[in-house]
Amino acid sequence: MSDDRQIRAQPITAEAFAPFGDLIEAAGDPDKIINQGLCGRFHDRATLEFGAGRAGISLFRAKARALPLVLDMVERHPAGSQAFVPMTPDPFLVIVAPDVDGRPGTPLAFVTRSGLAVNYHAGTWHGVLTPLTAPGLFAVVDRIATTEEAPSVNLEEHWFDTPWTVLPPL
Predict the structure, then answer these.
(1) Residue 158, SS3 per DSSP
(2) How far apart are CA 148 and CA 146, in angstroms?
(3) What is the model's pTM?
């Protein structure tokens, strides 16, 4: 595969990820101390969007993947945000792409760190849930469709004519 179809994964930062969503972490001092001083609350760490649907929490168990990884598809959810909250301390791969006239542009790849979750803004092109270590167990907070909606209303997939290769960080 040619070098122009390779993406080097990099450690994730709030600044680099900001155009695509929110990093959810307990960083810095808590916003408030609660529960008789025994709990720090890190308040409102993500912008959740559900449109006419409702919020739901689902559990996903995804198979662990390895780098390099062939990236042939990204998806987006135009009607709602989607948060991936790992239920283990293991890092996972995050792939996003800017929107260019309704199609994904050049993807970016990030590797998270322990204790970090991500929230994709509504309409953000992103890769599928990609744990790098088993068991790949996540809580996913996203929009649950109304009963009148077709399932495709909040899922759009894009298959690349030529896949990308995601390389491990240096």
Answers:
(1) strand
(2) 5
(3) 0.92
Please tell me the distance from the alpha carbon of residue 113 to that of residue 26, in angstroms, as a whole number: 12
Residue 82 has φ and ψ, to the nearest 5°, of -150, 120
Give the whole-angstrom CA distance, residue 55 versus residue 39: 25
How far is 49 from 129, CA to CA, in rounded Å?
A: 19
Residues 84-140: pLDDT tens digits? Answer: 999 999 999 999 999 999 999 999 999 999 999 999 999 999 999 999 999 999 999
Distance in angstroms (rounded) separating the CA atoms of residues 98 and 18: 11
How far is residue 160's CA from residue 104's CA, in Å, rounded to a whole number?
Answer: 9
Collapse the DSSP code of 126 into the 3-class scheme (helix H, G, I; strand E, B; otherwise coil) and give the result: strand
Coarse DSSP helix, strand, coil percentages of the chain, rounded to the nearest 5 percent:
5, 45, 50
Q: Any idea what DSSP says for residue 146?
A: P
Domains and CATH numbers, the chain: 3-167 (2.60.120.480)
Mention every residue, 6+ apart, whose C-beta is less than 8 A from residue 115. 25, 26, 89
Q: Which amino acid is at 49?
A: E
